[in-house]
Design brief:
single chain, alpha+beta
């Protein structure tokens, strides 16, 4: 009887060791794979999706969104693939100064899941309410305002989600967001603006003023949520089940990459939590919120 227990004990010990070392070992995964903080592979068990995947804008977006889906292009005969993040250039911080209040990756209250781990699918940075927000990369505006979901990589129909927003008149609950096609196969996602000052179809350059830091949507303080993803990516994140059931969203979104892989001094900012890039975009005279607004709450979510 004792001999029969040995394989069971050995298997249990092997599982414990694997649980302890896999997150550490996975830090060595290539940066081109969608990752969360600590390098965990995104949705490793999920079946691949067709790329690119895009959704047609809601009718309510007709006045603000170009007709039809917008997709990155690929040469004939090529299989579209996202560029390795290490090859991406031209990025800068959306805020000039402030703090990194929530990094990318595992987060107990994250809205998405990789396996059984809740994750935050971008970074949160905070300065002060009304702080100028600039474009992190040059590109074309795909969405600006509260009608942005068709551009952020949901996988599946948004009909039930839109119907709930219409039925309950909850569109005002959504954050004011900005989605920009960076022209390199990736899209930048900015959220929680007080207001944006650019429009759909407009070309923006890195460092150009695009809006002002706010707390629209579900946020515990003024901040900017910044995310980065490629429509060519075939990995995906699952929406947290309780959120999906309540809001009636699709079950998955295209997996994200850690923005700190492309933002200047990302490793230093992750270590210190502080942004320090000199701000080069002045606020137009007489426009926008006052720069004397109170500091943002540093405990932010979104």
């Amino acid at each position: 009887m004792r001999r029969h227990r040995l394989p069971v004990v050995a298997a249990f010990l092997a599982a414990v060791v694997a649980f302890a070392i896999v997150p550490a070992a996975s830090r060595l995964l290539p940066a081109s794979r969608p990752v969360v903080a600590n390098g965990l592979a995104a949705a490793a068990a999920a079946p691949p999706i067709s790329a690119p995947t895009e959704l047609t804008p809601l009718t309510a977006d007709a006045a603000t969104a170009p007709a039809g889906p917008i997709r990155p292009t690929a040469r004939v005969g090529e299989s579209p693939r996202p560029a390795d993040p290490s090859s991406l250039t031209g990025y800068r911080w959306p805020l000039a100064t402030g703090r990194l209040t929530l990094p990318f990756g595992p987060f107990f209250d994250g809205s998405f899941r990789v396996g059984r781990t809740n994750v935050h699918d971008g970074i949160d940075i905070a300065s002060f309410c009304g702080a100028p927000v600039v474009a992190a990369h040059s590109g074309t505006v795909l969405a600006a305002g509260r009608h942005f979901d068709a551009r952020i990589g949901w996988l599946g129909s948004l009909d039930a989600y839109y119907a709930r927003l219409d039925r309950k008149d909850r569109w005002h609950d959504l954050p004011i967001a900005l989605i920009v096609d960076d022209g390199n196969g990736y899209r930048s996602v900015y959220a929680h603006f007080e207001r944006v000052v650019v429009r759909v179809g407009q070309r923006v350059r890195a460092g150009q003023l695009v809006g002002y830091e706010g707390a629209t949507g579900h946020a515990t303080g003024c901040h900017v949520h910044y995310g980065l993803f490629s429509p060519f990516e075939t990995a995906r994140y699952a929406i947290r089940p309780d959120i999906g059931r309540r809001l009636r969203t699709p079950g998955f979104e295209i997996a994200r990459i850690d923005p700190l892989l492309v933002l200047p001094d990302g490793a230093r900012v992750l270590r210190t939590g502080r942004l320090h890039e000199p701000f080069r975009t002045s606020r137009p005279s007489g426009s926008g919120p006052s720069a004397s607004a109170p500091p943002a709450t540093l405990s932010t979510r979104g």
